[in-house]
Every structure is written in C-alpha cells, then in structure tokens.
C-alpha cells in the first residue's frame, strides 16, 4: 500500500532525534509539518529548519485537535488526555516506526525486551555484516529509523521500546524477538504491568518467525496461531544454557554449540543475550561459523556492566543502562567473585518500580548502598542499616572514595531512569567514568 500524506495537517510531537527525523521525512516529500515540544528549551531546537512552525512549553495546544495525522515521539505518553481526545475525534496518531514500515521493502529483525535490546541488536548486526549481509541498525538504540531510508540494505535490525510499539500498527517483521519482560515503566501505563506486557507482545502480531523466552511463558499465549515459533531459555527449549563446572554450555536441540569460557563477555545476562543471538542468526540462516566467531570477539557495549577500572584490587563497574529493578538484580547476580564489599549506587526516577525485590540481595550480600536522585530517600528506606541517602552521584562517589578498600567492587547500577538529574543514561555513565578515573 502506498501512503500519501499530501493535503494533510501533520503534527509532530517532540523535538528530539525522532522528531527531527520526522521533519526531514516530510520535507523530502514537499510537506511542511508543525512541531510541538513540552520543554521550553529542547536540546535539538537548533536543528529545526527555519521554515517549520513550532510551539514550545506545553502539549496543550489547539494544533493537536486540528490535525489529521500526529507522529508522537516515544518520550511522550500515548495516554495523555488530549491525545485520547484526539483519537476519539478520529485523528490518527502513529510512531516514527509506523512511518518507517510503510516505506520499506527489505526484511526486518525486530527486537524488544525490558533488558538487553541494544546488546542483542548490535550482536546481530555484527553477525549479519560478518556473514556478508548488508545490514542496517536503528531504532531505540539511538539512531532514528527514518534516517535509514536513504541507504541501501538487505536487512533492517530494529531495536524497539514499548513506547515505540504503542503506536506502531503495520510492523511485519521477518523475525520478532522479545528477550524478556519484567516490571518497568509502570508509571507510564494506566493499567499497569499487564498493559506494558501487552504492548511488548504486539511485536509478534504479523511476524513470520517469533523467538520467545520460555521463562516468560509467552508460548502459551501465541502457539494457537500459525506462525513459526522458536523458544529459548529452559532445558526443553530449542536453545538453552547448561552449567558446566565453572562455565556454561550453549545448546541447540541437545547439540553443544559454544562454551562461555570462549567468550570475552561475562555474566549470565550476557550469556542469555548470546543464546538469543545464536537463535536469531540460525533463523536467518547465517553461517554458524561467522556467528560463533563474531560472538567470541564481542565485548560489552558502553554503560552495560562495563568494567571501567580494576586497580588496587578494586573493580569499578559502569552499569548506567540499568534503568529498572530487574537490571540491578542481574548486575548483583554478576558480582559474585569477590569477597569484599559491594558499593552499590542506586537511584534516580524509579518509575514506580518495586525496589523491595532487592531486599533478598541486600540481606545476603556484604553491601553498602548509596541512594541518590529523585527517589533516593524512598529507596534508602528499604534497607536502612546498609543504605545512605546522598543528593547526587558526585557526592556519592566522593563518599565511596573514602570507604572503598582492596577486594571491593563499586557498582553503578541505578535501577532507575536518569532523567531527574541527567539528559540520559549515557551522561550519567560518563560522569561515573570521569569520577572513577579521578578517584583512581
């Protein structure tokens, strides 16, 4: 189907990377959209072309109810009253992903999940390229998908958040993957976790091949349809991991593929990512030889359980990408080798996450917790004996520098969004790296 946007009143919500890519998408077609941002000083304001009408400071604007088509950036909730009203009037509200999928003919690998999306999407892109496939990576990883349209490709690898999936209706992936579903962004969804989960599950609706985490029991929901399903995780799944002394073995249908000792990556969460990447690569019929070679040489992406410094017997680990409770649990599971104290940096905007789930870790481990940011005081009350509230990350690191000893681990795994004090998790992680280098 060919979509024609001429003659329509088009409005873009959000002047971020996504919003700017949407402006250029329409300008190339000779169409001038309008744009709104809630911030009075959006970071990317200088990137708006001079001939574009804009409004800053509030979403409550008459343009919304006068529009024919609204493209909403993922940072703006679809459940705002004025947007609900717009839908009731028949105004179409879509994501940039929806615009993108209407334009393309090359196949898509679509990847979502609460944690691990960027790592798996990057792994698969490298495997594809090493296999001779001209693959392009975009989406939630930080590169808007509309910017990929001018480039030739054999395959798109798209990382998707639940926010992007909320307003995407015609995604038809060759392979759709949900890595995991844990409680996150509960404050975003009026109906809570089930609504968040349903949004994630929409990635499977028109997919040719669905790759599913057996531990999330997604199979039970979707096996009724006629799509092709591949499972991973449990022992009876198509792909699974088995403990073998000090290492882990990767299997496909009872046939060993790989030993974790051959990888640069460490931590069970990373082994999970490797397992899923093998499943995706096999489904794409990429040579197993290139898949294994790529995975053996793959190292952590920045801000994802990244060891910044191992000096004087102290490990400093940057896991700033940890923006939910489950990701902090995963990080704590991975810090098991040392007998010293874990100095855990926790805090930011909790997004209504339940930090009581961390109590079992706090009780078992030798740990000191430094809670900072918007919800730092609230989080510190969960384990008062081991927690201290500090205003911000810098003050926490200053305090840690006076306490840390050989054998200890300093772990930034905040379990929260960074937007209360930082532009994004990268800025938070970069500050941690800077402070670590100053201290060591």
TrEMBL record:
Residue ranges annotated for the Mur ligase central domain, each copy included: 111-281
Pfam families given in the database record: Mur_ligase_C, Mur_ligase_M, MurD-like_N
EC class of the enzyme, as a word: ligase
One record GO biological process: cell wall organization
Keyword Zinc-finger: no
SUPFAM superfamilies from the UniProt entry: MurCD N-terminal domain, MurD-like peptide ligases, catalytic domain, MurD-like peptide ligases, peptide-binding domain
Keywords per UniProt: ATP-binding, Cell cycle, Cell division, Cell shape, Cell wall biogenesis/degradation, Cytoplasm, Ligase, Membrane, Nucleotide-binding, Peptidoglycan synthesis, Transmembrane, Transmembrane helix
Main location per the UniProt record: cytoplasm
Record domain Mur ligase C-terminal: where: 303-414
Pathway annotation from the record: Cell wall biogenesis; peptidoglycan biosynthesis
Matching InterPro entries: Mur-like_cat_sf, Mur_ligase_C, Mur_ligase_C_dom_sf, Mur_ligase_cen, MurD
Family stated for the protein in its record: Belongs to the MurCDEF family.
Protein name per the record: UDP-N-acetylmuramoylalanine--D-glutamate ligase
Source species of the chain: Buchnera aphidicola
Encoding gene per record: murD
């Amino acid at each position: 189907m060919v979509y024609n946007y001429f003659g329509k009143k088009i409005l873009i919500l959000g002047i971020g990377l996504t919003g700017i890519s949407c402006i250029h998408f329409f300008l190339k077609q000779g169409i001038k959209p309008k744009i709104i941002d809630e911030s009075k000083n959006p970071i990317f304001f200088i990137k708006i072309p001079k001939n574009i009408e804009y409004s800053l400071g509030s979403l409550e604007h008459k343009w919304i109810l006068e529009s024919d088509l609204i493209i909403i950036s993922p940072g703006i909730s679809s459940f705002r009253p004025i947007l609900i009203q717009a839908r009731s009037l028949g105004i179409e509200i879509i994501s940039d992903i929806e615009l993108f999928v209407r334009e393309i003919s090359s196949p898509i690998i679509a990847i979502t999940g609460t944690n691990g999306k960027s790592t798996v999407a990057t792994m698969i892109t490298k495997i594809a390229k090493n296999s001779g496939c001209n693959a392009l990576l975009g989406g939630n990883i930080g590169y808007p998908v509309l910017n990929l349209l001018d480039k030739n490709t054999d395959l798109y690898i798209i990382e998707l958040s639940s926010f992007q999936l909320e307003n995407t209706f015609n995604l038809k992936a060759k392979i759709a993957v949900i890595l995991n579903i844990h409680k996150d962004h509960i404050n975003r969804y009026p109906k809570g976790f089930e609504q968040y989960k349903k949004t994630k599950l929409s990635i499977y609706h028109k997919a040719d091949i669905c790759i599913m985490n057996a531990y999330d029991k997604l199979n039970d929901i979707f096996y009724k349809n006629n799509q092709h399903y591949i499972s991973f995780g449990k022992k009876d799944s198509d792909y699974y991991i088995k403990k073998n002394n000090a290492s882990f073995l990767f299997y496909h249908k009872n046939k060993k593929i790989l030993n974790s000792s051959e990888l640069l990556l460490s931590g069970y969460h990373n082994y999970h990512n490797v397992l899923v990447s093998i499943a995706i690569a096999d489904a794409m019929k990429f040579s197993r030889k290139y898949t294994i070679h790529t995975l053996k040489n793959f190292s952590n992406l920045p801000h994802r359980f990244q060891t910044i410094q191992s000096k004087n017997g102290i490990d400093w680990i940057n896991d700033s990408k940890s923006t939910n409770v489950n990701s902090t649990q995963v990080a704590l599971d991975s810090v098991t080798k040392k007998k010293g104290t874990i100095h855990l940096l926790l805090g930011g905007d909790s997004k209504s996450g339940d930090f009581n789930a961390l109590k079992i870790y706090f009780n078992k481990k030798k740990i000191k917790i430094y809670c900072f940011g918007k919800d730092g005081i609230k989080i510190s009350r969960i384990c008062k004996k081991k927690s201290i509230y500090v205003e911000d990350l810098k003050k926490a690191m200053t305090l840690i520098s006076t306490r840390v000893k050989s054998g200890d681990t300093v772990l930034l795994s905040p379990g929260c969004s960074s937007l209360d004090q930082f532009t994004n998790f990268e800025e938070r992680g970069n500050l941690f790296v800077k402070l670590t280098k100053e201290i060591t």
